[in-house]
Amino acid sequence: MSLKMNLKKALVAVCTGLVINACDTNKNSNPLKTEIDSVSYVVGMFEGDQVRKGLDFRDSVQTTQDPKSTKTDRELWLKNIEANLNGTATLTEGDSFSVATSNAEGARLRDAIAEAPFKVNNVIFLRAYKAHLNQESSLLTLDQAKEFWGKYSAKVKAEYQAKHQAQMDSVGSINLEEGQKFLAENKAKEGITENEEGIQIEILEEGTGAVVTENSEVTVHYTGTLIDGTKFDSSVDRGKPFSFKFGSVIQGWNALKGMKVGTKCNLYIPADKAYGAQAQGAITPNSVLIFEIEVLETKEITPENQ
């Protein structure tokens, strides 16, 4: 279990309250006084245990192939890990494998900790890392660490989701207000009509072909934008027309019923006839959507061609 994987799982949060009571008979020596301490120790455990297994395997293979081969210098390894984390000079003399791999590992850990969405106590991290690399006495068992990490990850995930939802609610409120203002102003413009569903329609070019009906399979080219001009989708950009049946697209596209093939129009669709309070990619909650559409083809759906 890599540090980068562990840090990614934690998402984004500053958490409190999940502090481990370490299995140390001398309570005064327990350094895990805060949640940051506990997280630092647990991640250090995971990293040290994983690296130990990798180095044990490497050393086992090496000595099997050549009994005189040199095993990994773990003291050098630990010194270079610590030096990388603390930004001090690393050792460059010694077993070439140990020097190269410990520096690479130290740089990886340093970068991962720097990118972490929470603080890591390097001293406590290194204490756990060393203990599990060398299979020394640990403040926690791996089972206790895994139990803590499961609870911690669930807590952070819940807090992240709550924070994200609050952000989306705030964005949705702003979008709703701005969308209503936009539609009110747009409705007053020349050439804009509004149907009974509240969809505003602007005909750019009248078509002369077959009429789109409720039972049509319709092929169109379209470009979708938000009221600030942000483009979120375009069949034109993809170079491939889009075919659909009514009921499989947002309600606002019902405004195409009754139009003729060849028609080019703009549809201004209120949020409640689009995706409502749901975010959809670049579309944030309660967004008014604008579609520039060209009706290319309409085909009646029959039992034979369904």
Task: Describe the 3D structure.
The two termini are 51 Å apart. It is elongated, with a radius of gyration of 31 Å. It is built from seven helices and seven strands. It folds into two domains: 3-161, no CATH class; 191-300, Chitinase A, domain 3, CATH 3.10.50. The protein has 306 residues and is α+β, with helices and mostly antiparallel strands. Helix 2 runs parallel beside helix 5 (122-133), helix 2 crosses helix 6 (142-187) and helix 3 runs parallel beside helix 4.
For the structure shown, list the relevant keywords.
Chitinase A, domain 3
Question: How do you describe this structure in short?
Answer:
With 306 residues, this protein is α+β, with helices and mostly antiparallel strands. Helix content is 43%, strand content 15%.
Quick one: biggest sheet?
7 strands, antiparallel
Low-confidence stretches are 1-28
Derived from helix and strand composition plus strand pairing, the structural class reads alpha+beta
Work out the number of β strands.
Answer: 7
Number of continuous helical runs:
7
- Using the alpha-carbon principal axes, give the shape: elongated
**Percent range for helical residues?**
40-55%
Oligomeric state, counting identical vs distinct chains: single chain
Mean pLDDT: 87
Total domain units = 2
Q: Report the C-alpha radius of gyration, rounded.
A: 31 Å
Strand content: 15-25%
**SSE run:** HHHHHHEEEEHEEE
How far the N terminus sits from the C terminus, by CA atoms, comes to 51 Å
